[in-house]
Structure formats: C-alpha cells, structure tokens
C-alpha cells in the first residue's frame, strides 16, 4: 500500500495557506510535519483525511484493494479535539467509535490497558484529566483498525511515561505495515520518519 501526495495546495477562507507539498509513504513509513503556528499543518492533515477539499494536487491511496477503496476510508484522524462525549463513560465512548468505524481491532479492555488506563473504563469521560483524555483518544486508534494514522499534536498534554507508551504504539503500528502522518511541535520518538518542514521554502 502507498500513500501518494503530489503537489498539494490548501486554502482556508479563500486564502492559500500552502502549496507545492509532496510526499510518498509506503507500508511502515511515517512522516513528521513541523512548522510555525498557522503554516497549515492541521489544514494538510484534514485534507489528507478527506475533511477539507484540496485547492490543487493529488492525494491517493494505492493498493488499498476492496477493503480500503479510497484514502479517507483508510484513515484514523486524531485532531486537536478528542472527539469523545463527556457524559458517556470511557467504555461507552470507545464502544461507540468501534461500532461506528467498523473493522473492530483490539478489545476495549486491551486498548485501555495499552494506554495505561485499564481501571477507568467506568468513569464519565468528562471526569478525566487532560492527559487521560488524550490517552483515551489514542485508545480509539486501537479499537478499530485503520492503516493510516493522521495525528495532530498527538502528545499535547501527555506526561513523559505516556509519551513513551504512545511511541511504542506508533512503532508497533508501523511494524505492522501501517503508516503515520503526524503534525507536532514536540519531538516524537518515531525512528526513521520522513520530515516535512512546512514554511521553510
Ligand atoms: N475555518 C477557517 N477559516 C479561515 N481560515 C482558517 C480556518 N481554519 C484555519 N484557518 C487559517 O488557516 C491557516 C492554517 O491553519 P492551521 O490550523 O492549518 O495551522 P497549523 O500549522 O496547524 O497551526 P498550529 O501550529 O497553530 O496548530 C491559519 O492562518 C488559520 O488562521
């Protein structure tokens, strides 16, 4: 499977925010996107996810077969927001996403265990701390399978131990043939990742 981005341009509110962006990822590859505030990192990720139209260029998932007929169908998108309902419990939120997304992957209890929060499935999401909320949002990546993870500031609010735990999850996803595109201001422990520095000419 290959994710091909060719000569992309993105716009917000009628203004071009970036142009001439290109990259190619194969199974197991990761791309780290960096650049100053407002340069268009989130816009790029949302375009790859199919949530925003491109102003120009071509995005394609090659070799996805019948299971992943287009790029959007193959993507998990973890945005700045955690996309969880505060009144529902952690388990209810994750069960919703597993059923909504399809392609059930890890059991909910295993996913919670892998983000170090095995004991809080019964709590309303709204009771959780900032870092705990982010870790539950990360657990969503594990309960339904998608080969492409699009991660916008995934480690914002995480402590050191949780950062390391998430690095292991990203590495396992890539070892399994998955792909990652991550926008970040913080160092991410993604070995051998390609780098895209937006705004550096
Ligand atoms: N809905 C919108 N309408 C108009 N302009 C927008 C909209 N959303 C974002 N923008 C503008 O698009 C540009 C790119 O924003 P974007 O969020 O992609 O940047 P970013 O590189 O992710 O920034 P940060 O590092 O602060 O997260 C900014 O100038 C922003 O003001």
UniProtKB/TrEMBL annotation:
Keyword list, A-Z: ATP-binding, Cytochrome c-type biogenesis, Membrane, Nucleotide-binding, Translocase, Transport
Presence of the UniProt keyword Transmembrane in the record: no
An annotated Gene Ontology molecular function: ATP hydrolysis activity
InterPro entries tied to this protein: AAA+_ATPase (IPR003593), ABC_transporter-like_ATP-bd (IPR003439), ABC_transptr_haem_export_CcmA (IPR005895), P-loop_NTPase (IPR027417)
Lineage: superkingdom: Bacteria
GO biological process, one term: cytochrome complex assembly
Domain ABC transporter: 3-201
Protein name per the record: Heme ABC exporter ATP-binding protein CcmA
Organism listed in the record: Nitratireductor arenosus
């Amino acid at each position: 499977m290959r994710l091909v981005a060719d000569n992309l341009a993105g716009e917000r509110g009628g203004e071009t925010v970036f142009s001439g962006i290109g990259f190619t990822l194969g199974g197991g590859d990761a791309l780290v996107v960096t650049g100053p505030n407002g340069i268009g990192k989130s816009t790029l990720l949302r375009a790859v996810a199919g949530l925003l139209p491109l102003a120009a260029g071509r995005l394609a998932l090659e070799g996805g077969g019948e299971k992943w007929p287009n790029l959007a169908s193959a993507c998990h998108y973890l945005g700045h927001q955690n996309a969880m309902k505060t009144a529902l419990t952690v388990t209810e939120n994750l069960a919703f996403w597993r059923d909504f997304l399809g392609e059930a992957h890890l059991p909910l209890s295993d996913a919670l265990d892998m983000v170090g929060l095995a004991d809080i499935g019964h709590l309303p999401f709204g009771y959780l701390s900032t870092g705990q909320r982010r870790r539950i949002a990360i657990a969503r990546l594990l309960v339904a399978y998608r080969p492409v993870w699009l991660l916008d500031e995934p480690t914002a609010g995480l402590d050191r131990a949780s950062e390391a735990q998430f690095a292991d999850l990203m590495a396992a996803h890539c070892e399994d043939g998955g792909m990652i595109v991550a926008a970040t201001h913080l160092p991410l422990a993604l070995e051998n990742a390609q780098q895209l520095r937006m705004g550096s000419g």
